[in-house]
Amino acid sequence: MPIQNSKDFFLKLEMRLRQPLPGLKVQKEMSAYPRGTTGISFKSNGEPRESSVLIVLFESEDEVYFPLIQRPMYTGVHSGQIGLPGGKVEEHDKDRIETALRETEEEIGVNASDIKVFGELTELYVQASHYNVMPVVGYLPYRPEYIPDPEEVSRVIEGRTEDLLSDKNRKIKELLIQDKYKIVAPYFDFENEIVWGATAMILNEFAAILKEIIE
Asked: Which domain holds residue 33?
């Protein structure tokens, strides 16, 4: 998305995030669903854990970008997936904004103190991991140099806001989950990178807001 007036764009975004949000209805447009009649069973105990993720925006060559991360391969439900930097709330975090900033700095080395927080998107419950996820939106006044934590991040991918707005980047494919469940997954195609699940749902709400402020 070429920026005609970046100061005006980010001001509009910050103001829009203070208003009622598009919400779960828009998030669900990118929700995966089972192929056939057999549902997916996820085990969960107790109350959901609290977590947050960060959409940290920055400008480069008249475009607005944000970092995504690919998780390493491991035994968990999000193994190898592409998502936003973030993680679970720790006892010393004063709120979930601080969680998002702290986790982003820990995972990809972006200086949290340089990020201006604009606001939050709609909280999303992720059944697969039994987490309530609060998406936070912020701005970094320069292009970051990433220092990925190898235990948390296998690589960093940069998405563009323009990619969120283009219908040609919205696709659907069938995936196999837990080696036995077939699902149909809407996803964003970022330069042949598949971004689906909770991250796609969060980004779809963000895309709806972007469309409002650039019209």
From this structure: 6-37+49-214
